[in-house]
Amino acid sequence: MLMALAFASPVFAEGNIAEGKTLFTARCSSCHSVGPMAGSGFGPQLNAIAGRRAGSLKDFDYSTAMKQSGIVWDDKSLAAFIENPGKTVPGTKMRFWGISNPRKIADLLAYLDSLK
């Protein structure tokens, strides 16, 4: 499954699930888990994140900023957060420099979207 995403620029990217899985493993899996046995640890688990209210999992201690952000995760909000977590949710506990490459963000989102 490929997903098309519109970013702030007029560029449209088709996400590649396999590339997204590789990126998740390299950049995200040290804090976040996915899959049938996923649970929150250093970061919240990310299964079925699309449509989830930010800060809503009961098994993770989110920052006040995340709980009060009012975000419901979708492609646009996830892309913004992945690109710059601190700008998207000032005060977030997530310590991550972000990913600025739209192609890599699209790939990562395609992978996350595949984890229903």
UniProtKB/TrEMBL annotation:
Residues 15-116 form the Cytochrome c domain. The keyword RNA-binding does not apply. Gene3D superfamilies: Cytochrome c-like domain (1.10.760.10). Keywords: Electron transport, Heme, Iron, Metal-binding, Transport. The keyword Ligase does not apply. One of its GO terms (molecular function) is metal ion binding. It holds the Pfam family Cytochrom_C. InterPro entries: Cyt_c-like_dom, Cyt_c-like_dom_sf, Cyt_c_1A/1B. PROSITE patterns: CYTC. This is Cytochrome c2. It comes from Pandoraea pneumonica.
